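agent> step 3/5: call structure_predict on target 'SDR family oxidoreductase' (Streptomyces abikoensis).
agent> reason: downstream docking stage needs a structural representation; sequence fetched in step 2, passing through unchanged.
tool.input:
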Amino acid sequence: MPRSISLITGASSGIGAQTARALAAAGHDVIIGYGSQREAAEKLAAEVSAEHGVVAHPVGFDLTRPAEAVGRLRSAVAAAGGLDVLVNNAGVNRRSPAVEEDLESWYRILDTNLTSPFVLAQEAARTMIAQGRGGRIINITSVHEHIPISGGSTYCAAKSGLGMLTKVMSMELAPHGITVNSVAPGETATPMNGVPAGHPATAIARPAIPAGRPGSPGEVAALIVHLASPEAAYTTGTSVVVDGGLSLVAAEANAAHAGNL
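tool.output (status=ok):
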């Protein structure tokens, strides 16, 4: 039986790199998408190939140019021989008050975090439909798919938009055996969040999070691998929050005042 082929964007570090490792460990050939970190992607491809005996292709994606990103996906899929799993992981963060946000930044964040994931999912779905063997599309959003944060007008709009896109595509693609889900991490100990690769999440105190710490990339990757597996065939259109309980505590700061009206 041929191995599944998975494409992960933003796979040169953080959650994406751990997802590539975990999918390779599960026997998937992997297309390792990267933005600017070509050397890291090539090193990771060599690592997973040697360790797990899978085929790994590093492929550059400029997600600020959605049409070009689709072209890169087509070429990568043709070279790999198909596509069974797309993990739309790459993204950029930004904080700016809504009244100060500029259109150039708005478009850059929307192109990277929403438009490119849409067109990549669209093209992946077309490929999966043509193959006739089903598939998995997994969009990595954020806890801010569900809850807002000050200064996050552009970022939150993009992530919540990707979450709703996930639901719509899940309904449309279910007859083809393609599931579409989103994974919504809270704070995760990654280089994008200022944490060096390999630094243990358990060594970072976060008293405001019920779990008391941020998540690790591997904890998020484990969920992604499950959603990519045959065992997740009945899970579609859902957003799974992986945040250590962060999104549960919105009312806690006001709890001391609630009974003192």
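agent> step 4/5: record observation. The beta strands are 5-8, 29-34, 56-60, 85-88, 135-140, 178-185, 239-242.
agent> proceeding.
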